[in-house]
Amino acid sequence: MKRVAVTGIGLVSPLGNSVPELWAKAYAGHSAVGRLQAPFAPRLVTPLAATVAFDGAAHFDTPKLRMLDRFAQFALVAANQAMREACQDAHVIDRSRAGVFVGTGMGGSISNDEGYQALYAQGSDRIRPYSVLLGMYNAAAAWIGIEHQFSGPNLTYSTACSSSAVAIGEAWSRVARGELDLALAGGAEAPLSFGSMKAWEALHTLASIDADAPSASCKPFSKNRSGMVLGEGAAMLVLEPWDAAQARGATVRGEILGYGLTTDAGHITRPSIEGQAAAMRAALQSAGLDAAAVEAINAHGTGTPANDGVETAAIKAVFGARAPHIPISATKAMHGHLLGAAGALECVLSLLSMQHAVALPTMHLHTPDPACDLDYVPNMARDGVPARTMLSNSFAFGGTNVVLVLGAAPC
After folding, report:
1. Residue 130 in 3-state DSSP?
2. pLDDT of res. 93
3. Rounded distance, CA 190 to CA 176, Å?
4. For the segment 243-290, what is each residue's pLDDT rounded down to a tens digit?
5. Average pLDDT taken over every residue of the chain
6. Which residues have a Cβ under 8 Å from the Cβ of 125 and sit 6 or more positions away?
7. Greatest CA separation found in the chain?
């Protein structure tokens, strides 16, 4: 197995659309959560979301824009940004050995919702001619492949909230085994349509609005947590063999060391301690590491009553007496839950945390929960945390548990 370097990062996120902006806001504990400004917001019980400042017209000409749902726009912009940062010369890449791996939980949700509005609400018999292409889940990956003329594997994964973590893990596996020379991997999500948000409300998993500060409505690991807040965005990484990156003098952002994937196979929404613990153990085994090597964790940390207690117990099951001494960050308090894109954005934040020797804060944690009694780095970033190995947890409805093992960039 070859070592795999991360040489490029691109993103469109509620905390900013560049790495410097993302890092500055995450370090400061800035929350992008707020009241949703949309025409349908008054019809929502909890009109909260973490939105992206983004205008597709600034990135695509009109004919192409008409063929891109918002989630695909995010993905393309993030992928292009990642390739630029990696300084990859498209003319020297063997495109048959370059692949695209994208995770999304809901695909072209906005375009699909617009089609249903036209058919059912407006009574029209006509919908947009590109509706299938806009709504299909693999649209983002397909457009990235076309943009960069990559003719290797072009794969889309949809495992709910762990989708993009699966995409990164599967891409890592292909590069590590020598099957690919380059992979663009990550996720994209734009779920803030009326139909989508009403469906999430019906599931009773969304946070209630904090009356004092709507931006503080997502409270992972806090006793008064009430649920998650939906977000949108994309994050993409360029993966390539470590030796090749070193040979061409590329700047290395970090390293993918391993990947664990397990399935609860018990309940479609209820997480299990055993499944989450098994994914962490599988990831460590994949990386050839002992649990003692892990120095920080980015938690799945949704802020739902069920997840946070289970994740705490799973971490204890894996790390035993060391568990209380491992800094654990739950960044969804700031950027919301990007569903299928969450794992990729949190992977990026984990790599940046190691680069800066910082444990990012778990914001809005003012009321400790006795059942969640680990070190969640409450309310303020912690400097001087020189972690060299970190886990990034992603656990999903459907029971797909994914853990990425990440290594710090060379000093």
Report:
1. coil
2. 87
3. 31
4. 999 999 999 999 999 999 999 999 999 999 999 999 999 999 999 999
5. 97
6. 119
7. 63
Residues belonging to the active site? 161, 300, 337
3-state secondary structure of 402: strand
Tell me the three state secondary structure of residue 102: strand
> What are 44's two structure tokens?
């929502």
pLDDT tens digits along 130-188:
999 999 999 999 999 999 999 999 999 999 999 999 999 999 999 999 999 999 999 99
pLDDT at 313 exceeding the cut of 90: yes
- Residue closest to 107 by CA, chosen among 129, 131, 124, 87: 131
In 3D space, the residue among 352, 371, 374 whose CA is nearest the CA of residue 362 turns out to be 374
Separation between Cα atoms, residue 324 and residue 317, nearest integer Å: 12
Where does residue 161 rank: exposed (0-12), middle (13-18), buried (19+ CB within 10 A)? buried
pTM here is 0.98
Percent of residues, the chain, with pLDDT higher than 90:
98
Q: Which tokens is 177 given?
A: 């085994």
- The structure tokens listed for 63 are 């004919």
Residue 354: CA atoms inside 13 Å, Cβ hemisphere, count? 28
Give percent helix, percent strand, percent coil of the chain, each to the nearest 5: 40, 20, 40
| Element holding 399 (H helix, E strand) | none
Question: What is the Cα–Cα distance from 217 to 229, expressed in whole angstroms?
Answer: 8
The pair of structure tokens assigned to 357 is 């020797």
